[in-house]
């Protein structure tokens, strides 16, 4: 008979109403049928009423309540057996059930909420014995006694079993949901690992080959312009390799494949955004930069993500909001950087040919990149007009330091 959890204060209020109602009903019956012309009768009536008011705690201390009701039943039965007519008249003696009206509720609560099964069943058996009085067999007494004791116990067994079944089903559903999330997380980790391998095996190797070829071209070229272009290609390729290393490391990190061939990239400052702002100003876009907080060092992949966000946002302003004023805000904290690009909306006519350039997936790719470094991206129009692109990025992102 393992106990079920006690419920909320709402159940306490319901039990209080039940306690008052049962105590009032049993007191009314006692006043009608008991001999209250003795001190013992009045004292027993008060004790019985107080004990039945204990129904308010039937979910918290059911064994104690049932034991007290058993004592009240004994206080009724024993004096009546020793001095017939002491409590109730002899003409009602054969059909009187000594178990108080609170007994069925206490028995039910003992079965459902009891914490000591052996004691609970012993008390139920004792109260049942007192209610049925087999040494004074009477059809009315036996029938009422069974209805007041045995039936609540059976109902309690059914309710407790049903509640445990519901709890087991709910636990099973929660476990299945957790397993589903774990399987989904495992599938995502495997997909990330597959993407990392693909980038490593194909993209990185191809870019490495291009860097080597550009370097060889620069070494062998006799023309100065050719050597300059080859050096620019080699530099761009090296930068791309650095970004690829970081991205592959971020993709691999959740899979738990820690490697030691190359240490974690050292933290760096957020890339200088002045060149991006100057490019926008050169084509007529009014851009203002606002920085708050003390600049902090960030993981290289985070710094590049912040740079790409500003780059993509300013490009979209030039394409879709000509004449707009732009505010770039950068807020530093100990463990996060918050970056936003806000424009006031187009002040002139948008060039359809310019707006149609590009793949149309810039913000989608940007969102994926921000989420890849465990950041949050919010984009959308502003209530007063214009558009806002904002990101909340962590300062540090663990990566697997090898390719």
Secondary-structure map:
Blueprint: H1 9-33, H2 39-53, H3 62-82, H4 103-113, H5 117-132, H6 139-220, H7 224-252, H8 274-282, E1 286-292, H9 300-320, E2 325-332, E3 336-343, H10 352-355, H11 362-372, E4 376-381, E5 387-394
Parallel strand pairs: 1-2
Antiparallel strand pairs: 2-3, 3-5, 4-5
Commentary on this structure:
With 403 residues, the chain is an alpha+beta fold. The chain contains eleven helices and five strands; from the N terminus they run H-H-H-H-H-H-H-H-E-H-E-E-H-H-E-E. It has helices spanning 9-33, 39-53, 62-82, 103-113, 117-132, 139-220, 224-252, 274-282, 300-320, 352-355, 362-372; strands spanning 286-292, 325-332, 336-343, 376-381, 387-394. The chain has a five-stranded mixed sheet with strand order 1-2-3-5-4, covered by helices on one side. Helix 3 runs antiparallel to helix 4 (103-113) and helix 4 packs antiparallel against helix 5. The longest helix has 82 residues, at 139-220. The radius of gyration is 41 Å and the shape is elongated. The two termini are 60 Å apart. Mean pLDDT is 81; it is low at 255-262.
């Amino acid at each position: 008979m393992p106990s079920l959890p006690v419920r909320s204060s709402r159940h306490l209020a319901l039990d209080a109403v039940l306690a008052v109602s049962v105590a009032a009903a049993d007191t009314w019956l006692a006043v009608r049928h008991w001999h209250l012309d003795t001190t013992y009768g009045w004292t027993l009536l008060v004790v019985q009423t107080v004990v039945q008011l204990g129904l308010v705690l039937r979910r918290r201390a059911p064994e104690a309540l049932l034991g007290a009701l058993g004592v009240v039943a004994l206080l009724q039965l024993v004096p009546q057996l020793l001095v017939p007519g002491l409590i109730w008249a002899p003409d009602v003696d054969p059909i009187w059930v000594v178990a108080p009206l609170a007994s069925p509720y206490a028995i039910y609560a003992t079965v459902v909420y009891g914490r000591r099964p052996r004691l609970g069943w012993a008390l139920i058996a004792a109260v049942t014995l007192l209610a049925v009085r087999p040494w004074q067999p009477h059809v009315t007494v036996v029938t009422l006694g069974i209805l007041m004791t045995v039936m609540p116990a059976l109902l309690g067994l059914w309710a407790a079993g049903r509640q445990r079944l519901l709890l087991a089903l709910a636990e099973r559903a929660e476990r299945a949901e957790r397993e589903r999330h774990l399987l989904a997380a495992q599938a995502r980790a495997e997909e990330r690992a597959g993407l990392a391998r693909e980038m490593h095996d194909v993209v990185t190797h191809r870019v490495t080959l291009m860097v080597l070829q550009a370097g060889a071209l620069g070494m062998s070229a006799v023309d100065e312009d050719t050597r300059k272009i080859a050096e620019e290609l080699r530099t761009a390729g090296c930068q791309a390799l650095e970004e690829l290393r970081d991205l592959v490391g971020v993709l691999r990190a959740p899979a738990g494949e820690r490697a030691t061939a190359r240490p974690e990239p050292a933290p760096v400052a957020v890339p200088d955004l002045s060149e991006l702002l100057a490019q926008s100003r050169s084509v007529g876009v009014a851009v203002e930069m606002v920085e708050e907080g003390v600049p902090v060092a960030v993981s290289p992949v985070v710094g590049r993500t912040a740079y790409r966000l500003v780059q993509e946002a300013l490009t979209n302003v030039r394409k879709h909001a000509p004449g707009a004023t732009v505010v770039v805000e950068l807020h530093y904290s100990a463990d996060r950087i918050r970056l936003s690009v806000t424009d006031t909306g187009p002040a002139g006519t948008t060039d359809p040919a310019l707006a149609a350039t590009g793949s149309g997936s810039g913000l989608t790719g940007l969102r994926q990149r921000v989420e890849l470094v465990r950041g949050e991206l919010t984009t959308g129009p502003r209530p007063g007009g214009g558009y806002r692109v904002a990101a909340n990025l962590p300062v540090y992102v663990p990566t697997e330091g090898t390719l």
